[in-house]
Amino acid sequence: MLDRKSPPAFIQDTNFKLLKPENQNLNGDNKVLFINGGDQEVVKVELVFNAGRWFESKSGISHFTSILLPKGTPSLNSYQISSIFDFYGIHLEINPGLDFTSINLYGLSKNITAVLDLLIDMLTVSSFPETELHQAKEQYVQGLKINLEKTSYLAARHFRRILFGNTHPYGKDFELTDVQNLNQDELSGFRDNFFKNFSAFVSGKTPDATKQQIANKLNQLIPIKIHRKQHLKSPAAERNQHIDKEGSIQTSLRMGKQVIGRTHPDYPGLLLLNHAFGGFFGSRLMKNIREEKGLTYGIHSTIHPLKHESYFVISADVNRENRSLTINEIKKELEKICTQPLQQNEIDIARNHFIGSLQSDMSTPFAHADKIKAIELFNLDAEYYQRLINEIIKINTKSLQGLAEKYFAESDFYTISVG
Asked: Do the beta carbons of residue 66 and residue 96 sit within 8 Å?
């Protein structure tokens, strides 16, 4: 007879199995990793270049070079390039970032190779037409003017600035004057220097013949030597700053500090500590500041592991008159987690949610490729995510308490509020 009074025993699967990539070396250090999986005849080709803001000699050059790659070649204009991608049902996506720039192609497996010659032309002979550059500048300026009216945008922008300094690539943002000063020759130079060295990730259902075609086409890109860049950080002397935004009824808050990266032995514990503190709906910040105090619709904390630095940030949007109260409540929660050990039940809930979320994200070969990409770009070992889960399972109350005292001391935090 069924026992309807007792729930079944909870059994957690702690395995994390990634699809095994097939690695093919190309010219120089270039490589392509094939992550084969899925039932649908679709594929994603992602090329990742060391061409982010970290490598800029002039503010904005990475962004504009990236977005203008598909806007013209010696033989095709922007409309013709777009029409070719549309004809084959290929979606093109270009994402310039702080460390890397990625170019993504999504489409049917049978069509993906038809646009690779065009992709190579974009990366080698893109012409950056003056009319397209002018239009891109105008669009960026209009978007920037709109964003500069948003307290959340300003808070995020100024938080990175006070954390890293306004000359560091993680801290600086390009201004309107920077946009106007860029020219075609500078964009061509950046393309030639930084869009030849790459790691490619091909995920989805990819026949062997298609794999070989992709590898052959990408092998046309000849890598060049890139000199490593070093940037000095210059954090702000004043840790607590407020920027008044006239007419705003909302204040955006950012509180945080620089922290350790993925390869540090404390990192698994810090991830779990962050999750319990502000990483999901049942976290301490959400329970206090959203559910009990009703000060915001959402508050969360996040660890951002970048290539060269990492930082922890608490983010919230509140009514202007509640700014000081919210900051004080966040400080109370920081003090509490440093002085009062997390209860075992609290740790178990955060741990189960974190591991479950990590596992549930892995439903497609594209998701597997994202994890494999992180392993490749951050020089992690193949078993990194399984080891991460294993370490998180072993963490106890005492070790979390030590990590809180080490990394969550409120006196080390920077605070920026805008509104």
From this structure: yes
Q: Would you say residue 115 lies in a domain?
A: yes
Place of tokens 């607590």: 240
In a domain, 3, yes or no: no
**Average pLDDT in the chain:** 95
User: Are 112 and 245 members of one domain?
Assistant: no
The fraction of the chain above a pLDDT of 90, given in percent, is 90
Report d(CA 198, CA 192) in Å as an integer: 13
The DSSP line for 269-329 is HHHHHHIIIIISTTSHHIIIIIIIT---S-EEEEEEE-SS-EEEEEEEEEEGGGHHHHHHH
pLDDT, one tens digit per residue, over 373-383 is 999 999 999 99
pLDDT in tens, 38-73: 999 999 999 999 999 999 999 999 999 999 999 999
- Domain that residue 36 falls in: 22-218
Q: Which residue, 386, 411, 360, is CA-closest to 268? A: 386
Q: Is 380 exposed, middle or buried (0-12, 13-18, 19+ CB in 10 A)?
A: middle
- Is 250 found in the same domain as 211? no
pLDDT (0 to 100) of residue 343:
93
- DSSP reduced 3-state for 106: strand
Q: Is 248 helix (H, G, I), strand (E, B) or coil?
A: coil
Are 34 and 181 members of one domain?
yes
80 inside domain: yes
Determine contact, residues 302/315, Cβ cutoff 8 Å: yes
* CATH number of the domain enclosing 193: 3.30.830.10
- What stretches in the chain show pLDDT beneath 70? 1-2, 8-11
Contact assessment for residue 105 and residue 124, using Cβ atoms and an 8 Å cutoff: no
309-345: pLDDT as tens digits: 999 999 999 999 999 999 999 999 999 999 999 999 9
Separation CA 290–CA 284 (nearest Å): 10
Same domain (yes/no): 115, 195:
yes
Q: How many domains does the chain have?
A: 2
Mapped onto helix, strand or coil, the DSSP state of residue 174 is: coil
What DSSP state is assigned to residue 264? S
What six digits make up the tokens of 297?
Answer: 């619709």
Same domain, 208 and 328: no
Say whether both 211 and 278 belong to one domain: no
